[in-house]
């Protein structure tokens, strides 16, 4: 499984690179703030929401500490998706966050 450090992903976000971020945390965690532009799909919903993901795109998976996003990354890889897990998750994220509307 591919991994990226949170600060490396932050650099990509700050440079306005095209990044597709999926946040697999629970609703109450996301309510505290998420990476701007990230899409929220709870880990438990990933299998039933595969139709929302494009196999031709690359996704960065994030959770609180990297464990749940690692499970999501593994599942998505097994189903033919190009994904990278964000090591350390939101605990390691020092960049901007936005509150979901």
UniProtKB/TrEMBL annotation:
PROSITE patterns: RHODANESE_3 (PS50206). InterPro entries: GlpE_sulfurtransferase (IPR050229), Rhodanese-like_dom (IPR001763), Rhodanese-like_dom_sf (IPR036873). Residues 15-99 form the Rhodanese domain. It comes from the Bacteria. Pfam families: Rhodanese. This is Rhodanese domain-containing protein. It comes from Gracilibacillus halophilus YIM-C55.5.
């Amino acid at each position: 499984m591919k991994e990226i450090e949170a600060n490396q992903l932050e650099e990509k976000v700050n440079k306005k690179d095209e990044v597709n971020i999926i946040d697999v945390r629970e609703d109450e965690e996301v309510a505290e703030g998420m990476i701007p532009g990230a899409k929220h799909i709870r880990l438990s919903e990933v299998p039933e929401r595969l139709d929302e993901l494009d196999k031709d795109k690359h996704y960065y998976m994030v959770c609180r500490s990297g464990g749940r996003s690692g499970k999501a990354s593994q599942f998505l890889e097994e189903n033919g998706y190009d994904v990278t897990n964000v090591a350390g998750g939101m605990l390691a994220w020092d960049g901007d966050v936005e509150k979901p509307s």
